[in-house]
Structure formats: structure tokens, C-alpha cells
Amino acid sequence: MAGSTPASLSADAPATPQVVVRPRKARSISPARETWRRFRRHTLAVTGAIVLLILVSGVLLGPYVWPVAINDIDFTAKLQGPSLAHPLGTDDLGQDLLARMMYGGKISLAVGFAAMLVALTVGVLVGSIAGMASGWVDAALMWLTDLFLALPTLPLLLLVMYLFRDSVKKVLGVEGGAFVLIVVVIGGLRWMPVARLVRAQFLSLREKEFVEAARALGASKVRQVVQHILPNALGPVIVVGTIDVAAAIIFESTLSFLGLGFPSDVPTWGSMLRDAKDYLDIAAHWALFPGGAIFLTVLAINFVGDGLRDAFDPRRVL
Amino acid sequence: MNRQYIIRRLLIAIPSLLGISVILFGILAMAPGDPFEELATNPAIPPEVRMALRAKFGLDDPVWQRYLHWLAAMMQGDWGFSFQSRMDVDRLILQRLPVTLIVIGASQILAISVAIPVGVLAAIKPYSIFDQIASTFAMIGFSLPTFFTGLVLILVFSIQLDWLPFVYRADINATGWAFYWEHIKQSIMPVVVLGLAQAGTLVRFMRSSVLDVIRLDYVTTARSKGIGERKVIVRHVVRNALIPVVTLIALQLPAVFGGAIVTEQIFRVPGIGSLLIAAIQANDTPVVMGVTFIISCLVVLFNLIADILYGWLDPRISFR
């Protein structure tokens, strides 16, 4: 956007030069509101947000509307296509796919958000330490970040799940153990972009006048970071966090698809696909619904992330 | 291209490899489970024998000593023995590696040859209809999980249309052209699945890279000299826009290997990805470690190649 004027708040007001500019009570727009105004312009992002809202509420409230057990076995109705009794059809044991989809969606979304929180926490911590402490601490942390960036995520994820699954299961229970392990490992392998981003933001922000002013007033380092630098670095971090939710959902589904995620009796979207892939020729719906759900969720989240990126970018005129 | 730059890059790669090996060994060392666990519950074996065995294999040594032993063994090519396949791990991996590299290489070529023209065309007219369609499709490709694309392709092209086989066979008994034709036919779907996932990301990279370059002054100069628009784009813009994309392709590689594991598993391609999954299912730890290590090494190697290429394409980098 070279040469374009930065979007200013006054850009909205009709340009009427003859009006005497009296210091009317300035209509102040909070940054959050301004971001929302810019986000609304991005049609696909708004669509994504709506789709996501529907998915989340369907997954959370759906079980109350459709109270069918996820493990209700009915061999007379196995591998059926969508019908009134089973809106999304049934699997090879005659279990209702809609109920299982809602259960799996809850897991996928919970894993996505939790893993994003882990990644953001670690990333912001590492990035701000590296950004504030220049010198060897910065160099060492950035070397570590680059090292982690070169690690192949999926093989490592598989390795850790393979080695630690059983022992974590003993401590935290079958489902809880898998959840904690998956979240920690995905989060632990996704913090690097956040750390780099936060560091880059810190390097430029800490030299800005308002931080210098805080420094001159005697603000401690922690106060400078928490009160002044971090809030201003948050926009891009939120964008990366959004994308991270999508990535974590894909990783969790991949793990389940490969049989290394949640235990096989817990229906997740990935494990449903795994079970369904041997029945593609006779019961394609069984694979298409969970696969489509993963795709739709990830696409919606990515569009929301795209919209947020545009909304947070002050150089972009919207 | 100065030699100093290459040497510096090589020296940077060594600590990365060591760091990766520390992480891998750390994970293995922290993992619960004792290789002699079964002996502990076996009443026929007295505890002294078990202790002697532990001491013999160095299980009671301090961690750093065990790490050095392990590292020395790995460097000498002694990667352990696969109890599942009854052969040495390094030979097993070497047998499977070419298939994976061919599939990944072909998919990268497909991704690049789709993504560059699309990305450039989208960037020449930003916010045009073509750009919006291309960006939307890029987003879709980028959001499609490989396992779902794979299953959909199987559903359409193998089950509905019956054009392509969905199980990769290594033992095709045909000769001459038929042999190659069969191989190409069975490789199409794995390559397309991996390639499309990559193309989505690459289109976005390429578009923003071209947008960065196209407004630089030298492009205006080229235009004002009266060079045709087409030539300006191809000779002046794209060439320079491609430089950062080289690094981005290398940075995507860990994700590509991840995608390859899934793709190989779906289509049963006999590469290192399906080997990894099979080894995990069979509790074959040496193979799991070996495959993870070789994939990490490959990622570091390709990053190194990309760095050197980058220095060659953009000489300013190598003098920093």
C-alpha cells in the first residue's frame, strides 16, 4: 500500500470543508470498535465467523436437541445413509453419526482452543523475554526458536504420542490423558511463529516514544511490558492465534486419523474418518460428514484470521 | 557467491542437527518403559542377571554418557535393528526413502508450477475477480486436510469413476511403457493431494511477494524505458519475487513431510511415512526413532540448500 494514506478515524466523516471546525465533543471510537468496523467489511471473514458460531453452538447445544447416545449400537440400522431417524446416517455398528459428530466436534474445538492458548502463552513469554533482553539471551532464545521451527511437527507429534500415551493415561485417565498430552504437545510445537512475531514487535515498540516516556517516569521493566508494549503487540498475535486454532484442529484430526490421538472408542472427527475410510464404496456419507466438518471449521477459522489480519493492519485502508 | 558464506551456513547447520538430536534423545530418555521390564516379572531370571544386563547395555550410565553413545552409534550408521522387519534400520529406511523423495519432489514441482502463474496473475491485478477467486481457492487448498482430500479423490476417481488405482503397488508385473504408465497412474493421486495442499500456501506467498516487488522503483524504470508489460513482469518482477519464495518453500518442508506421512498412509505408498506409522503400530522403537531422525535431518539439509540458493540468488545476503 505504498503511497496510500493510513486509515484515519476522520476518513469516515463526510468531507465538508466549509463547516467551522469547532472542538465538538470528539466521538471517540475505541480500538476494539474500530477493529470491528474494519472486520465487518471483510465479507468472507464475517461469513466464517457466522459459520463458526453455528458450529460451536451446534456442538455445545446440539446434544440437548438431539439426545441420542454416541454408543447406541443398532445392527439393524448399520451403514445407513441420512434419514429422518438418523439425519447424518449411521456407521458400521449402527451408531448415530449426528450424535457422534457433535461429540467429536466438542473435542476438536476444545483441543484447538486449548492448544492455541498453550502456544500463545509459551510464544508470548519467549518472544517478550527475547525482545526485552537483547544480547546473548536473545540470541540463545532465537536459536532455540529456529531449531524448533526446523523440527518436523507431525513425526515428532507421533513420536511423543507413541512414547508417552500409556503413562499419561495412567495418571490422568483415558480421555483426559489424551487431551492433555495432545494439547501440550501441539502447543509445544506451535509457539515458534508467535515468539518470533512478539520479539519483532517488541524490538520496534520498545524504542517508541511512549515506552521511552514510561521508562523516563520510572516504570519497571515488567510494567513497561505489561502496560505499554504487550497491548500494542497483541493484534498480530491474535491473528496468529486464530490460525493456530485451525492448525491444532488439523493436527488433532490427523493424529486421530492415524490412530494415535484419542482412544478408539472416543468419536472424534479424525477417528471417524479413519473408521470410515474402509467403507468409502458403500457408505461415503460416513467419511464425508466428519471430513467436511473439519474442512468447514478450519476454513471458517482461517477466513476469520484473514479478516482479523486486515482489520488489525493500520496501514490498510478499509 | 563466496565460499565463506557457504562454510558459515554449513557451520550453522551442525549445531541445529546436534540440537535436534538432543531433543529426540531427550524425548526417548524421558519416555517411560524399561527394555528389561519383561525380565523383571520373569521368575526364571534372578535380579542380579537383570542388573548385569542393564550395566552391560549402559542403562545405568548418566544421561549425557548415554546420549554420546547413542550419537556415536547414529553417526556410524548403527541405527539399531528392526525386530518387525528383521533387518537393520538404516537399510530399511534407505530402501523406503527414494519413494518418499520422488512423491514429495513431484508434488513440489506440481505445486510450484500451479502456484507461480496463479500467484503472479493474482498480484498483477490485485482485488480483481481473478485475484479474489484465486485467493479463495488458495484458502480452500490451505484449509483442506490432506487426509480428507485423499479420501475424496479416492471416492471420486477410484470408486465412482474407476480411473485410478487407490492402492500403491510396488510389484507391478509389466514391462516397458506399461510399467511406467502403471507407476504414473498410481502416483497421480498421492502427488496431487500433497501438491494441492502446498499450492494453496504457495499462491499466497507468491502473491504477496509479487505485490512487494511490483511497486519498487526499478519496475517503474523498466516500464518507463518502454519495455512491454509482459516482459517487465516476467523478466523483472517475477525473477526477484521468487527469491523470498525459495526460503518460504524450505520453511514449509516440515509441514510437507507431515503431509507425506498422511498421504502415504492413505494410498499405502511404501515410503518412510507409512514405515513410521507401521513401526508405531508394531512398537518398533528403533525404526520410529530412525525415521523421525532422518526426516529431521532432511529438513535441516533442505533448509541449508535453500539458504545457499538464497545467497546465490540474492548476493546481498551472502555479504552480511
Q: What features would you highlight for this structure?
A:
heterodimer, A: 318 residues, mainly alpha, MetI-like fold, B: 320 residues, two-stranded antiparallel ribbon, 13 helices, 1% strand, globular
Question: What can you see in these coordinates?
Answer:
The complex is a heterodimer of chains A (318) and B (320). By secondary structure, chain A is an all-alpha fold. Chain A has one domain: MetI-like (MetI-like fold, Orthogonal Bundle). Chain A is built from 11 helices and no strands. Chain A has helices spanning 31-40, 43-65, 97-132, 136-150, 153-172, 174-188, 192-205, 209-216, 221-257, 269-276, 284-312. Chain B has 320 residues and is mainly α. In chain B, strands 1-2 form a two-stranded antiparallel ribbon. Chain B is globular and about 90 Å long. Helix content of chain B is 78%, strand content 1%. The two termini of chain B are 12 Å apart. In chain B, α10 (229-267) packs antiparallel against α12. In chain B, a hairpin with a 4-residue loop joins β1 (81-82) and β2. The mean pLDDT of chain B is 81. Chains A and B meet through α4, α5, α9, α10 and α11 of A and α1, α6, α7, α10 and α11 of B.
Main β-sheet of chain B, in a few words?
A: 2 strands, antiparallel
Continuous helix count of chain B: 13
Determine the strand fraction of chain A and express it as a percent band.
under 5%
Oligomer: heterodimer
Radius of gyration of chain A: 24 Å
Shape of chain B: globular
* Class derived from helix and strand content of chain A: mainly alpha
Q: Rg of chain B from C-alpha positions?
A: 25 Å
Number of strands of chain B: 2
Q: How far apart are the first and last residues' alpha carbons of chain B, in Å?
A: 12 Å
Q: Biggest interface and which pair forms it? A: A-B, 48 and 50 residues
As residue ranges, the low-confidence spans of chain B are: none
**Within the largest sheet of chain B, what's the order of strands?**
1-2
| β-strand number of chain A | 0
Low-pLDDT ranges of chain A: 1-17
CATH homologous superfamily title of chain A: MetI-like
- The H-and-E topology of chain A, N to C, reads as HHHHHHHHHHH
Whole-number mean pLDDT of chain B: 81
* Proportion of helical residues of chain A: 55-70%
Q: What is the name of the CATH architecture of chain A?
A: Orthogonal Bundle
